[in-house]
Structure prediction request, 497 residues.
Amino acid sequence: MAVAKVCGIETEYGISVNGARDANPITASSILINAYINELHGNVGWDYVDETPGNDARGFARESFPPSEVESHLVNTVLTNGARYYVDHAHPEYSSPECISPREAVVYDRAGEEVLRASMNAALRSMPVGQEIVVYKNNSDRKGNSYGCHENYLLDRALPFGKLVKFITPFLVSRQVIVGAGKVGTESPLVAKGKVQFQLSQRADFFEEEVGLETTLKRPIVNTRDEPHADASRYRRLHVILGDANMSEVSSYLKVGSTAIVLAMIEDGYMDDLDLSLYDPVSSLRHVSTDLSLRRELRLKSGRRMTALQIQEALYERACDYRDSHGLEALGPDGDGNSVLELWGEIIDALKTDPLSLADTLDWVAKYRLVLGYKERNNLAWDDPKLAAIDLQYHDIRPNKSLFYRLGVRAIVGEEEVKTAVTQPPTNTRAYFRGKCLERFADSIASANWDSMIFDLGTDPLRRVPMMDPLKGTKDHVGKLFEESVNPAQLLDSLGS
Prediction:
């Protein structure tokens, strides 16, 4: 049976400094995160020792790869909810803790937005009068630069990587019709100016390869980074770099949920007789993104032709059969899989008949109707800068400035659980142990990462606690130890026994 689809979302936010000329985005990102740490949180640094970004799932390693893709001298901290918050190149990035279900992944992604809002407020109090740091949950700066919203999924190491690539690629290419965040125009140098008016995805312009290790140049549809952050003899981690940063909770929920279901089917061999391999995945990716009619047919390797929506429907129908034969426990213990499947089918049916009926549900539809309405009311051309400005303002996470929050888009999770998730970790993954250690004993923690905690008890040597199983270190597993431990030494002694 498929392993539990422990998952999470990493979001790099766009950043600007209002009221300042030639502001450095790296400096601005550092100011933003340090303001949060100093005023609201406190700092436990990140441990880079076990990071191996140059390992490739195809069986080799890039020794020339740097130890980490982020600059290790920049701020990089761990939060009490188990998340990582740091400067990634020129952007503030929030990486959610490990979650047991798609719904929980949405809760902790939303918690990241709250962390960024609190950071903006904290930074504002320390900045010169008239200056303000603003962040956007989007994916490009309209200057040819893109920043990512990555997803992570736990996989069985026994699954051959070539098999994974074969079956996940057509799904990732076609899922834009549901989970795209929408974009006015294009930044692709391969497309003539004005040819693309609006597209489904913010990221499709920036992908050049089907399979590869890079994440910032020559971006691949399927990323081969073999860095499981877990026991490498049992697990691998699929690092999906293709997705958009979603404002819509429904889009985020389906992005994670449908991907988790397809991965479970691949692991269980339930896709072996459903070959939807695309003849040219990279070109197909761009064709899907720029086809607002959802009717453009893509050429398959078999010679057949299918639209992206038809591919999604075929996968959805297979997922329904899979649920009946295997169940969907891999998506968590609370029936999340059934909810994802029901919503997936509902969205496909609506897209087949009337896509604009989903303007209160999906990001790309909500944004398209918003931009189209403004364009027609003001008789503007599609390349008018005002439409690009509306696109950007859709992703402003300040509630009083964001156009998204004025649209009444359908929600999935409650505000109180999001508020709780800002400081409290998930209870059903190792994130619980990480978060509670930081909450209780931060002064005794030298550093932390996804699969270990390093304690400094004031005596040599430092003590590393490995966390190689993402499903261990849960509340059920270690909650009583935290209740009984009055200091970190007692906790470590209890763990050792």
Notes: The chain has a mean pLDDT of 94.
